[in-house]
Structure prediction request, 327 residues.
Amino acid sequence: MSNWISCYHPSTNSWHRLTTIPGLLENQVLKGFSIASIGETIYIIGGRYWYKVVGDGHDDTVHETSITVRSSVLKYETRRDTWSSCAPLATPRYNFACTCKDGKIYVAGGQTTLDSADGTCLAEVYDPTKDEWKPLPNMSTLRYKSVSVAWQGKIYVVGGFAKRGNSDSKGPYMMERSSAELYNPQQQNWKYVARMWDLDIPPNQIVNVNGKLFSSGDCLNAWKGHIEAYDEKLNMWNIVDGSHSPISTLAMCPRMQRIFCTMAPIGTQLYFLAGYRMPGEILKTRTEVHVFDTSATANGWRSFEPIEEEGEKELCSHCSVVKLDSP
Prediction:
């Protein structure tokens, strides 16, 4: 039940289990963490430990208990197939925003304790050449379950459950949910951006492709049936022409259960990796890969042959692109 990392090869439409995240005990699962890549190295950052317990012989229900918030950072060198520990986060956190820019990893917000529904305004940046985390100025909002993307030379932290840092309200997070904060590394300050995200439900992923921002869903519905692009001038998201896709929907396949959907940008293309639990007496998983070319003028979709496997596959929407240079 330990967390493991799968590798998908676009050139061959093939999967293989790459490695297992070390340090987890039996029945322990890592959730709410972030994965980032710099060069040929993958980083596993923060998160919280969960303990899975299957009921006794009279009850096969799986019970989950959260144990502790994690500050540790691990790096996996893909070419050498080795794991090692990095300097830990200054602030343990999970459900936080994370992105890379200029060879550094930026994290912001998230939750720092298990017994509070509040987020944090704290942010920090990691320099792998020094193996060092440095604090950044605080955001003006407490924020968690937001997403981060590097865009136009700045770091954007978008959406999430958020409220003003000086608010005394104990009620639900409202208007700030659809807002964003952007960090300017040159000026070393944050700027609040109202209504950058259309919904008060946090986004699932936002990616930068050739200077344009794209999204395909939110944390409750990872695939909304189309792709949206951000219009900076109008501060709104518009449906991309021709982006209604062949990705299986639950309405089309009511007996299938989607267990993950994530997207990864490679060049001008968006790779969508979707997995489904298949009905039947024998437990099977179906994996679909669809590609949308953002530069296409007509139908930009192409699909790969689905892959069906026996057994359980429980993936989260953590995805990172690694380009291996020839030795």
User: Anything to note?
Assistant: The chain has a mean pLDDT of 86. The longest strand covers residues 257-266. The chain is about 0% helix and 45% strand. The two ends are 34 Å apart (CA to CA).
